[in-house]
What we know:
Layout: H1 41-66, H2 80-88, E1 95-97, H3 103-109, H4 113-120, H5 154-168, E2 174-179, H6 186-197, E3 202-208, E4 211-212, E5 215-216, H7 229-232, E6 236-241, H8 245-262, E7 266-271, H9 290-297, H10 301-312, H11 317-340, H12 348-351, H13 359-374, H14 390-412
Parallel strand pairs: 1-2, 2-3, 3-7, 6-7
Antiparallel strand pairs: 4-5
Helix pairs in contact: 1-2, 1-3, 1-10, 1-11, 2-3, 2-8, 4-11, 5-6
Amino acid sequence: MTGDELCIPIFKRLRQDGTLYPVEESQVQGEPSQDASPIERDTALRIYRTMLFTRVLDERMLAAQRQGRLSFYMQCTGEEATVIGSAAALQDDDMIMAQYREQGALAWRGFSCDEFMNQMFGNERDYGKGRQMPIHYGSRDLHYMTISSPLATQIPQATGYAYGQKLAGKGQCTITIFGEGAASEGDFHAALNMASVHRVPCIFLCRNNGYAISTPSCEQFAADGIAPRAFGYHMQSIRVDGNDVIAVYEATLAARKIAVETHQPVLIEAMTYRLAAHSSSDDPSGYRSKKEEAIWRDKDPILRMRNWLEAQGWWSEEEEKATGDQLRREVLESMKRAEKLAPPALDTLISDVYDTPTPLLTQQLEDVKQHIRKYPHAYPKGAASMGFTSQELEDSRKVYQERHQRVDGGQTS
Ligand SMILES: Cc1ncc(C[n+]2csc(CCOP(=O)(O)OP(=O)(O)O)c2C)c(N)n1
């Protein structure tokens, strides 16, 4: 048996024009029909506003990176329904362990625009104290594990965390979100196996967005995507239209119920598309066509939800414009505030690595300080907040200039 006949269908609820697919007789239990709203009004509007915020944040931060104000950025554009629809189906104290493209889930939990900016600009209010690249957000209060750069490491960590939740017996679960590229890592398989063996309340949500940087999904796996892999681990699995916020929301609600009530992990594969480049350092024109992108732009998850909200009579052209204007203002003002804040004090570089810094770390910090004293011109103006007085920096700047004048003079004569 090769598994060729195994082809999992895609669960869908919402068409692009904002109408719902008819509910099959077999799926209808009791009274509810396709006429009943699958998401109640307040939740739907909050999801939609979070989707709009995430899109505006992406647009502004990519522009900021192009202007040289920010070193790096990664967009969620095109995947908002997968990320925010799933987060909305969880309880606030469920743990989220994401990859890097899931700022929408953090925004849903209430991470403020200022908190996003402080992390990206690595200023003195950044929870990570400026020690990470932009987009490595995290929030203990919001039960959102800080992003790690090494791919897929969050997946086995989620299994372990969910095991702890099971032992604590408080009815919480963990969701871990990752790309189909990350699902090629050994960590993915180890995580699913252990989750299944130990029956932990964990939802594995794969965003199958078509590409792992420049590698298309057809070059990543030969079988029918990610969803069927669950069967090898004796787990339940569902494939869902990742641009359909209602389908993602309902699938995650059902997965959470299975995970928490029966202590079984569930794998969700959300079929979506990475509309933007992989990151601000990438140019997708080298590996995919404009025509392909246009097909997916027509399936925009935000437009699809807007069509549905308008059909419900819950949203209008005026509200769309006013909300967009307000969000753009909010993001710009927040960015200006974050840029003006000083960098974290230099000593915090090692202050909370160990209870007492090791002699090697202390020596390394001293070396960094000497380097800054020697080359102050190469460091931000806020270097004074790195523990030096303005006079110290001015003195070292003079020494540096004098030395260079001597060197330049020697070379030209
Ligand atoms: C262990 C490791 N290997 C390689 C990388 C480089 N890398 C960063 S993102 C990425 C592609 C991930 O693709 P996917 O999981 O599909 O997520 P997407 O970017 O499409 O959202 C790779 C290979 C890394 N960060 N860590």
